[in-house]
Design brief:
Layout (H helix, E strand, L loop, with lengths): L3 H11 L2 E7 L4 H10 L2 H7 L3 E7 L5 H10 L6 E5 L5 E5 L5 H16 L1
Parallel strand pairs: 1-2
Antiparallel strand pairs: 1-3, 3-4
Helix pairs in contact: 3-5
C-alpha cells in the first residue's frame, strides 16, 4: 500500500501491525531489500502479522522529511515495524542477508503476540 491512513485502518480492522518500507530508487540497498520483500518467503512471514506500507522517498520533499522524522527513518534503507498506535517497535536500518531478515521479521511478529 502507499496510503498511510488506509494501511493503518486496514491493520486495525485485521488486528495487525504495519511494516513501513522507506524506499528510494537511487538507493542500491533499498532496491535489494525491495527484491527480498517481493519473495514468497518474505510474504509468508510478513502477511500474517503486518500490513505493508511503502513510502517512496526518492524525491526529498517536505512531506517526505516529515514522515522520515516522525518515524525515525534517518537512514536508507529503513524498514519499520509499527503498532497501530504509530509507535515503532522494531527497525531495520541496514541491509541484512535474507536469513537474517526472516529472523528479524519473525522476532517482530513474536513481539506482537506478547
Amino acid at each position: 500500500m502507499h496510503d498511510e491512513a488506509a494501511a493503518f485502518a486496514r491493520a486495525r480492522s485485521e488486528s495487525k501491525a504495519v511494516v513501513i518500507d522507506f524506499y528510494a530508487a537511487w538507493c542500491t540497498p533499498c532496491v535489494e531489500l525491495d527484491r527480498w520483500l517481493a519473495t514468497r518467503d518474505a510474504y509468508q512471514v510478513i502477511a500474517p502479522s503486518f500490513v505493508a506500507l511503502r513510502f517512496d522517498v526518492t524525491d526529498d520533499s517536505d512531506e517526505v522529511a516529515e514522515k522520515r522524522q516522525r518515524y525515525g527513518a534517518a537512514t536508507l534503507p529503513s524498514l519499520l515495524f509499527v503498532g497501530i498506535d504509530g509507535s515503532v517497535f522494531e527497525q531495520l536500518s541496514q541491509l541484512l542477508e535474507p536469513a537474517e531478515l526472516l529472523d528479524m521479521v519473525r522476532a517482530a511478529s513474536a513481539k506482537l503476540r506478547h
